[in-house]
Amino acid sequence: MRLFEMKSEHFELSDVAKIASTLDFHRKFAEAQKITEEFIAMCKKPAVSFGGGKDSMAVLIIAQTIDPDILILCADPPNPLTGREEHLKNVSQVCHSDFIHVAYDWDVSAVLNGELKYPDGLKKTVLWQAQLEREIDGVIWGCRISESWGRRMNFAKNGYIYDNGRTKICQPIAKWSAYEVLALACVTGYPINPVYEKMDGYYDLDRIHDGTWWPHETSGVKGDWIKRYYPEHYENYKTAEALKSKWNDEIW
Questions:
Q1: Which of 164, 218, 235, 245 has CA 20 to 30 A from 118's CA?
Q2: CA separation (Å) from 161 to 65, 130, 164?
Q3: Quick one: pLDDT at residue 194?
């Protein structure tokens, strides 16, 4: 039985919000504000990287407490989960800011047909181009070390603020849990990604990539979640999962 099927372990989103009343959360929030304020002061033209998920929402909220007019880069995929567009409109209205939309288009049909491979790294490439065009010299993004080994190693090496050779990077919520970032949105009045309203507490929040239906993780657990909450994307997900497995086999 999967975690989201264990009804006795169910928690409400209101339970997540209670985290925001703890001393540990207040300490983390104050620390994130201090880190973000320091970073913004270092940059001539900083921006927040926002994709609509819980992590980028958290850094957007934190950044706007320092600079309400900070630029917001929004990477738009060709394969979003249902409801993303409406969610972005709601966020834009609440934060009183227009997003700089940056499309990272790839041919979904050609990839699913096996004619092309999934373009890993395309999102970072187009965001970097958007930075260059707008002379943005620093980006705040919602990286959390609990999500991957690579992110843990990156943080261990670089810390909260670093220069990757192309631009300055700030990752103020690196040590936050998924529950803490969701709690911040719950108590500040910013819109909750519809993913979590659908789930209302089921499933492990640390194992969800909430932007698209592409199987970025390696464990395959996302398939059950997609099938339950986004059945309209399930066939595409399964096709992509099989292709990804095939490509990995070819590498080895």
A1: 164
A2: 18, 21, 10
A3: 82
Q: SS3 letters for the chain?
A: CCHHHCHHHCCCHHHHHHHHHCHHHHHHHHHHHHHHHHHHHHCCCEEEECCCCHHHHHHHHHHHHHCCCCEEEEEECCCECCCHHHHHHHHHHHHCCCCEEEECCCCHHHHHCCCCCCCCCHHHHHHHHHHHHHCCCEEECCCCHHHCHHHHHHHHHHCCEEECCCCEEECCCCCCCHHHHHHHHHHHCCCCCHHHHHHCCCCCHHHCCCCECCCCCCCCCHHHHHHHHCHHHHHHHHHHHHHHHHHHHHHC
pLDDT score of 209 more than 70: no
Q: What are phi and psi for residue 210, nearest 5 degrees?
A: -95, 15
What pairing do the DSSP bridges indicate for beta strands 161-163 and 71-76? unpaired
C-alpha to C-alpha distance for 188 and 161, rounded to whole angstroms: 25
Q: Which domains does the chain have, with CATH numbers?
A: 3-211 (3.40.50.620)
Task: Please state the pTM of the whole predicted model.
Answer: 0.88
CA atoms within 13 A on the CB side of 86: 7
Report phi then psi at 140, rounded to 5.
-100, 125
118-152 pLDDT, tens digit each: 998 898 899 999 999 999 999 999 999 988 899 99
Structure confidence at residue 245 (pLDDT): 80
